[in-house]
Every structure is written in C-alpha cells, then in structure tokens.
Amino acid sequence: MEKERWRFIDSGDCSPAFNMALDEALLEWHSEGKIPPTIRFYGWNPPTLSIGYFQKVEKEIDMEAVKKYSLGFVRRPTGGRGVLHDQELTYSVIVSESHPAMPQTVTEAYRVISQGILEGFRFLGLDAYFAVPKTEEEKADLKNPRSAVCFDAPSWYELVVEGRKVAGSAQTRQKGVILQHGSILLDLDEEMLFSLFKYPNERVKERLRQNFKHKAVAINELTERKITLSEAKEAFFKGFEKGLEIVLEPYTLSAEEMAYVNELAEKKYASDEWNFKR
C-alpha cells in the first residue's frame, strides 16, 4: 500500500512572533482543506522564552532577566509551561483530528505523533522510550505541576533517555485540527533557564534546579560526540517518516502565504495584548 504524503517545511530560524503565526496559519489552512497534514522544523532568532497559553506573566516570569539575556518572548497558543528555545530543534505537527491514524484522546494522539520523535532519537543512536506515570503521586503531579519550567513537569508518554526527559511537547485542538509542537534539546544553558522564572525564595529555586538535573537532559549530554543541528534534522525527518509511516515532501511557502503569516505575526503574536494578557 502506498504511504500517505505529508508536507514538510523547514522554516529555519525565525522571530518568535513569526514562529507562532506560522503554526497557527498551518492549522487554519489545514482546517480549510488547503494543505495536507504538515510537519515543520524551525529555530528561533533571537533565542526565546515561550510561555504556555494559560501562564500568568507577572506571577511566573522574570521579565528583567528575559531582557538581560536579550531573549525574545512570546505566548504560545498551546498550554504547558515556560520553554527556553535556544540550542534545539523545534518541531510542529499539523493533522486533522479525524485523520484515520489519530486516536480521539489527547494523550493517545500525543503518543502516535511522538512516535516520530522516538524514532528520531533512535536514528541518533539513543535508546529513547515512552515513560508512563505509574504511581498515584506521579499522576497527581500531572494535575498540579509545581514548577513554571516545562521540562520539570512529567506528562503522559514522556520521551525519556536513561530515565530523563529529552523532549517537551504541547498540544492544542482548534477547528478540528491537532497542532502539536515541541522542543528537542541539543544543548542547554541551565543557568540562563533558571534565571527566567520567579520563585518564592532562593532555596526553592535551588531545589527545583537540582530536581531538574535528575529529570531532564539535552542530547549532547548523552552522546560521546556533539550532534549538530543538521544531523538532528536528518534523524528526525527520517524518524517522522518511519514513526508515522508517511512520506515527507519538502515545501516552500509562497509569497502570498508568507505575507499572510507576517501580518498575523505582527497583529497578534508580536502584540503586548496577546503576550501579556493574563
């Protein structure tokens, strides 16, 4: 049987507002039947702190630190917590909720989509697997996460290598379409990451930071030699093809599509009204 063909876009390093606008535009175009299911790879210029749709900036984020490090800042249309996008490969998957391969529940659809990431890690020679919370305490943590930092939080079907989280993802469903996007860390500046959030006191900050070391890890901490961004792209491209049993066809946005995304970026995702609304 012939494999289904999906679209693939590598949009390179873009502004925070453009990145979120393009994900939203792809969701919209797919809901209107204008484009097939799509997988996108991207990066961030400048490095950026993205926050979840429901996060309260004033309560959780140290905006002075964001400015000090000259980081971009944007609110995602998806939930979850703060993510520092720096030395990583970011991906997004846009596919209809009614697609025959997509389960109805969020967690099961997350598992199916994340199979592509799992295979990508394996192409890099890493023994990745899905961790499922087993104890009641772990399940309770899902409902009441203690930290504003995304990679500190457990979730269903977490991708782990050697017991530590290697990718953080978030999902939203709008207009009958699933948008899942996430970060695959190549390297991590832990000092910078932990300076971006507000804590009740230094003791709590240090405790969370120590916990984080046991829970999350970047790819290049696990490999004998440094994995480059281009090697990661190649591995996860093949990973998505294998994991989702699809063929990816590279695509470049038209001038008309680019103009639409740029306008959406400027009007919505670059606005204080969107980013600081909570």
From TrEMBL:
Q: Which residues form the BPL/LPL catalytic domain?
A: 33-248
The pathway this protein participates in, as annotated, is: Protein modification; protein lipoylation via endogenous pathway; protein N(6)-(lipoyl)lysine from octanoyl-[acyl-carrier-protein]
Query: Which EC number applies?
Result: 2.3.1.181
Q: What domain of life is recorded for the organism?
A: Bacteria
User: Which residues make up the annotated site Lowers pKa of active site Cys?
Assistant: 165
Q: Which UniProt keywords apply?
A: Acyltransferase, Ligase, Transferase
Q: How does it assemble?
A: Monomer.
Q: What does this protein do?
A: Catalyzes the transfer of endogenously produced octanoic acid from octanoyl-acyl-carrier-protein onto the lipoyl domain of GcvH, an intermediate carrier during protein lipoylation.
The miscellaneous remark of the record is: In the reaction, the free carboxyl group of octanoic acid is attached via an amide linkage to the epsilon-amino group of a specific lysine residue of lipoyl domains of lipoate-dependent enzymes. The reaction proceeds via an octanoyl-thioester enzyme intermediate.
Q: What protein does this entry describe?
A: Octanoyltransferase LipM
- The species this protein belongs to is Anoxybacteroides amylolyticum
